[in-house]
Amino acid sequence: MPILKQLVSSSVHSKRRSRADLTAEMISAPLGDFRHTMHVGRAGDAFGDTSFLNSKAGEPDGESLDEQPSSSS
């Protein structure tokens, strides 16, 4: 994936970036992992599946497949 420029405003640049600063190479193809599972309204009200907010970013919910509980007899 290409490295994106940081969108940090400075005294030289205005807060809005121009369209010329963004190129097609900076945008990846769809990754197939998008799901519209919740909605946030103008007033801040939200509904839908918010369970992803409880997990650490980038980690699946539940136990890892590598971690097997030890069985004792």
TrEMBL record:
CRIB domain: residues covered: 27-41
Region (Disordered): 1-20, 45-73
Domain of life: Eukaryota
Protein name (record): CDC42 effector protein 4
Species of provenance: Homo sapiens (Human)
Lineage: Eukaryota, Metazoa, Chordata, Craniata, Vertebrata
